[in-house]
Amino acid sequence: MKGNDKMTAINLDNKLNVQNKVEVTIAGKEYSLLLNDEIGKDITNTLLEIDDGTKPIRDENELEELEKADLEVQKETVCGALDSVRDTEIRTFNKILGRGEGKRIYKYYGNSTQALTFLLTELQKIYNKSITLKKEKKNKKKAKKRRKYIKK
User: Fold this and answer.
1) What distance in Å separates the CA atoms of residue 110 and residue 36, rounded to the nearest whole number?
2) Percent of the chain beyond pLDDT 90?
């Protein structure tokens, strides 16, 4: 660097708003969570597994094949997909909220896999919003100009 060159100091800490410590109520119980990468990965991986696990009952090609199968195969396929999704979600809740919590939450919501999926999706939304940019402070020059016009 030359003698006249000045290094610009930029404080990136002033630009981040980190709110990844949250209190959530799920199934009548309050939890304090630190929504970090580990929990984010757990939730995302679970949602990916749900998508993959329900493919046999969502995908058009697989549905066509399923419709050709006899009734027992259809029942086994549908029930197997839903059971797999439920078990995956329960394991994830156990991991992020504590042992036994997945089954408790599942029972609390009337044994509804859809309720578990909804909760995981909401937790993922909270995680995705936990780190945002702070609103930038107004440029000092612009503020000074405005004051010039507002003078009494």
Assistant:
1) 29
2) 49
